[in-house]
Structure prediction request, 258 residues.
Amino acid sequence: MPDTEYVIVGREDTVAVLTLNRPEALNALSPAMLAALCDALESLDADEAVRAIIIDGGQRAFAAGADIQAMAQSTPMDIVRTGTLSYWQRIRRVNKPLIAAVSGYAYGGGCELAMLCDLIVASETARFAQPEIKLGIMPGAGGTQRLARAIGFYRAMEMILTGEPISARQAYEAGLVNRVVPPERYLDEALELARLIASRPPVAVRLAREALRYGYESTLRDGLEIERRNFTLLFDTQDQKEGMRAFLEKRSPDFSGR
Ligand code: CAA
Prediction:
């Protein structure tokens, strides 16, 4: 998978690391940048050897939001015609575990991109905000819904109506991030987490993730239905047989991914 101007693709065995690369604009998510990100994610999603994907933005900013320069003169028809909002749907459809490694600003679409991931590892320098209100707009890439589900209605309402940021520590206490670590550790911490998930049987990871994400976006009843279906399906995998046999034989499992 080749690097592009906006996204650098690295590989560490079964873990892929995508680095957003537009530092001069704090990784503002222009349509070209989002297209490059979606293309890279879809290509890694199709690669069976990849078991987890990290999205990183470097030390200064994860991403400072959608590109304001590109949006400033937009009409509603421009947004419909160019389909810029559909990039977020493409990211949502990725099937591999996604881990956001957040250092510095995760603002607007940057915060929404982190929330499209399954886990968020934050540097102590991370700041999360939905500042769209200050521009006369509102979040448009899932922020009103995902933030409220992640940190609760009242805290989300405050962030979205004031546009003010919260610190990494506040985000951790509110349940928005999994871990907060010193700046020099955030990517290594994300890599460790990714490697651990990558070592688990991939079909079980995929179906468990699907049940969680589906339930997050729907009713308890529908989520329970998917859980029941996916749980049952896993009894058709070699890894279920191997995992349970290994436990009973008191040895480490050797998962084949089948
Ligand atoms: N779009 C375009 N360019 C951006 C940008 C953005 N979202 N964020 C930062 N930049 C650019 C700046 O214009 C600046 O460029 P120049 O050097 O050419 O002037 C460069 O990045 C560095 O930014 P600052 O000088 O502003 O850096 P700072 O450290 O003083 O401030 C910041 C950092 C507080 C994040 C500030 O840049 C900022 O407020 N950015 C905008 C954040 C924002 O409003 N995001 C929401 C966008 S709308 C959205 O995301 C909609 C959606 O839901 C999909």
Observations:
- The longest helix spans residues 31-45.
- The longest strand covers residues 7-12.
- DSSP finds twelve helices and ten strands in the chain.
